[in-house]
């Protein structure tokens, strides 16, 4: 409960325009602990660096809801360029996309622009043998995102597109069951948005229990799972679960955020687990940065110290 109060307070304060202006005025320096850079070249370099430690990358061009079709199409073009650049750099491109940044909810020529752009992005990724994960945003977007995910799997197969389920939502276990026929590749997370108690569990213990159930159900169904958490007790439990249920190591991976628990990322990779870091980059880093700060009280001190240093 204290966690929730803290998170709510930080997300409310960081949503204030003057706080955003103040943090942004200090420039990218503050964000660089969690964000790989402001351009795609920096992000690709970060993937190459991590690969030296046996850690894979998941590139994310930062950007959320865009209000005009022109901006959405521009954003989609940048993601397509990213796929081209990653491929040209010798990587198998793996990217994450927020559908709100490519036009979800805007209708153009009778079709949702987010879906139309996602189709182009998944098609390009597939041509390079790559993968696109549709990030999950706040709860009003869950139905439409899962519907669009289903459409994309039907069109491209489940080897090139996946999505995310958030264990803090009451609805999520039923959502996972409803996707089972697709044998979906799912990233399981706890959830990062400020959600009302009517839709999201307020207690961390419940969110954690739901997290474990989702991962285990996904594994028992024989589907690929991205165990996206820094929670060591969950990671330990998952290691035991896979051993006791004979789940092969190529059926799941651990995923963590760039700049968070690098020690644990390296340790798991050295133990022979597949590990992937989520590598955000881009100029629109503020909302992502705020959510990371909201996850851990020590991170607020890190920001305040950085601001005092100027
Ligand atoms: C690869 C990946 C992709 C994600 N994609 C999405 C998404 O699409 N939609 C969405 O809603 N959420 C997403 N998230 C965020 C997620 O929902 C959580 O907010 C975030 O992962 C923190 O929860 P946790 O599972 O690490 O557990 P927690 O219980 O929050 O944390 C466990 C421990 O991890 C460490 N830790 C956690 N966060 C931080 C931090 N920011 N800085 C330093 N230490 C930290 C702390 O030691 C903490 O005690 C993603 C997370 C990951 C790892």
UniProtKB/TrEMBL annotation:
<dbReference type="Pfam" id="PF01619">
    <property type="entry name" value="Pro_dh"/>
</dbReference>
<dbReference type="InterPro" id="IPR015659">
    <property type="entry name" value="Proline_oxidase"/>
</dbReference>
<feature type="binding site">
    <location>
        <begin position="190"/>
        <end position="192"/>
    </location>
    <ligand>
        <name>FAD</name>
    </ligand>
</feature>
<feature type="binding site">
    <location>
        <position position="98"/>
    </location>
    <ligand>
        <name>substrate</name>
    </ligand>
</feature>
<protein>
    <recommendedName>
        <fullName>proline dehydrogenase</fullName>
        <ecNumber>1.5.5.2</ecNumber>
    </recommendedName>
</protein>
<feature type="binding site">
    <location>
        <position position="292"/>
    </location>
    <ligand>
        <name>substrate</name>
    </ligand>
</feature>
<dbReference type="InterPro" id="IPR029041">
    <property type="entry name" value="FAD-linked_oxidoreductase-like"/>
</dbReference>
<feature type="binding site">
    <location>
        <position position="166"/>
    </location>
    <ligand>
        <name>FAD</name>
    </ligand>
</feature>
<feature type="binding site">
    <location>
        <position position="204"/>
    </location>
    <ligand>
        <name>FAD</name>
    </ligand>
</feature>
<dbReference type="GO" id="GO:0004657">
    <property type="term" value="F:proline dehydrogenase activity"/>
</dbReference>
<feature type="binding site">
    <location>
        <begin position="229"/>
        <end position="230"/>
    </location>
    <ligand>
        <name>FAD</name>
    </ligand>
</feature>
<keyword id="KW-0285">Flavoprotein</keyword>
<keyword id="KW-0560">Oxidoreductase</keyword>
<keyword id="KW-0642">Proline metabolism</keyword>
<dbReference type="GO" id="GO:0010133">
    <property type="term" value="P:L-proline catabolic process to L-glutamate"/>
</dbReference>
<keyword id="KW-0547">Nucleotide-binding</keyword>
<keyword id="KW-0274">FAD</keyword>
<feature type="binding site">
    <location>
        <position position="136"/>
    </location>
    <ligand>
        <name>FAD</name>
    </ligand>
</feature>
<dbReference type="InterPro" id="IPR008219">
    <property type="entry name" value="PRODH_bac_arc"/>
</dbReference>
<comment type="pathway">
    <text>Amino-acid degradation; L-proline degradation into L-glutamate; L-glutamate from L-proline: step 1/2.</text>
</comment>
<dbReference type="InterPro" id="IPR002872">
    <property type="entry name" value="Proline_DH_dom"/>
</dbReference>
<dbReference type="GO" id="GO:0000166">
    <property type="term" value="F:nucleotide binding"/>
</dbReference>
<feature type="domain" description="Proline dehydrogenase">
    <location>
        <begin position="44"/>
        <end position="303"/>
    </location>
</feature>
<feature type="binding site">
    <location>
        <position position="291"/>
    </location>
    <ligand>
        <name>substrate</name>
    </ligand>
</feature>
